[in-house]
């Protein structure tokens, strides 16, 4: 199977099909008008969308959810945190977001019921519990029948 140099394989490739060869993209066909039809269709879609000012995805969502409003001016505006710019808690004592409020309440050992942070209350409870612990331990050492607290040896086993 020897080939001469001027001869090409049937697919229009310079070498046989089992040898790696570069791919050449075919040029545009002369009679093709499909791309212009797609452009005109897209132009019609853009004209329809210009009156509604909503993107295609928003229009689809509106078809699925006709009662929902997509107007950005109707979205609720949240007050910003003084320190970081995140939305602050509406009932926060310090007027901060949850993260900043947690840091501040921990530093000051304060409570923020708006965020459910109870550092001061927990500290007071733990101190009260620790204060009650020594009294409980003393009462446990003194038994109910032993007024002295420790058992005394009255007699010897040998005697």
TrEMBL record:
A Pfam family reported for this protein in Swiss-Prot or TrEMBL: DUF702
Compositionally biased region (Basic residues): 57-67
Source organism, top-level taxon: Eukaryota
Region Disordered, annotated ranges: 1-72, 130-159
UniProt protein name: Dihydrouridine synthase 1 like
